[in-house]
């Protein structure tokens, strides 16, 4: 399967050829070239920002019904094409086809949700403490927003940034991950036909060192929403704060899954497998460290090993495959380096740890589990971002909670228990932005806030009604009689 078609940037309502082009390669089959995607240069990024700035005055004052109708049209087309777009996603990122179709469905639902939010923008009308004066508190669009998205959710994360940005009257310049531009381009093509005025939405593909750097430092960009690595995110924060631009960051995680003695073993194993290994473990909410109390520890290790032997690794588009490939050679090399690090530190390899041979050449890795690890090992503290997890034994719930919170990150945390007492205590005392009780740590809804604490997130939450906190600014108006 090969396609040498070229896919251009979208700037000011026009498709614009890139300065250069880059091949989009299928990680399940390295002979499959999905297409050649534009690489923007500095001039093209600045042109996209200028187009957004020019379009902003009229768009920010546009009618909410028109915004709603256009967003709803985007959502409807995504949902109608979910199998086609899901196939594209599976080809370029490596999620299995059912997972890919599920992600596309989520993207469509996000646009539908924010089509409704356009009609629910609210404020407050408050009496002043001064007689004869009233106060209006309203929300207005932030301005031009730069959106920088990662490779692991190539259509859902662009959707949950683009949709609220447009719903609240902002103009958008988006840079998708250079590794997976196909879904973002397909989404841009849908948006280009949905009735948005020229310049309201712009797509510039290319490297972060070129495209991202210009977006972050250009003073015509009022805010940056970024999802990606910790190092890049921290530098973006420094650059944005230096020029007083608004910034929203979603970064890393080292999410704990606590298993207590009283947990339902079968349920605990299944949610742990789902948390750690599905989507090839390439989710910021994935749990890569299992904190297991002593009474259930040995049984849990054996049950996990048995369950993991049934996981089928293979081409993302093949029926019956549970886990597709790692997204790239660089990511595979990183995963394998952590396998070696864990072994060097003295952790015991329970299962996995080796590449898998399939019918096609790809980046396939067996789901990997370590036991006999400690809280201070690198495998317990650093984000691997692949199908690699480890188990740490603890004495009791109190020790489990302390270890769960002993991390620089705080995105998602889970507990498996049949005790209402421990479930409620964990929910309150876990230092994470999202807590899962008897559920996988990975897997969240699109209509509620998403985000973490500590080193995982910075700024206001994403998704649901909480998205307005980033994409709008508050204005207080005093009205005298």
Overview of this protein structure:
By secondary structure, the protein is α/β, with parallel strands linked by helices. Helix content is about 40%, strand content about 25%. It is built from 15 helices and 23 strands. A 7-stranded mixed β-sheet has the order 15-16-17-14-13-19-20, with helices on both faces. It has a 6-stranded mixed β-sheet with strand order 10-9-8-11-12-22, with helices on both faces. Strands 1-5-4 form a 3-stranded mixed β-sheet, with helices on one face. The longest helix has 21 residues, at about 95-115. The protein is globular and about 70 Å long. The termini are far apart.
Question: Which helices and strands occur, and which strands form pairs?
Answer:
Elements lengths: L5 E2 L1 E3 L2 E3 L3 E7 L2 E11 L2 H19 L3 H17 L1 H12 L3 H21 L6 E4 L5 E9 L2 E5 L7 H12 L3 E5 L6 H11 L8 E3 L4 H10 L5 E5 L2 H13 L3 E5 L4 E5 L5 H13 L9 E7 H15 L20 H17 L2 E4 L16 E4 L6 H4 L6 E7 L2 H9 L3 E2 L1 E5 L3 H10 L4 E4 L15 E2 L2 E2 L9 H4 E9 L1
Parallel strand pairs: 1-5, 8-9, 8-11, 9-10, 11-12, 13-14, 13-19, 14-17, 16-17, 19-20
Antiparallel strand pairs: 2-3, 4-5, 6-7, 7-23, 12-22, 15-16, 18-21
Helix pairs in contact: 1-7, 2-4, 3-4, 4-5, 9-10
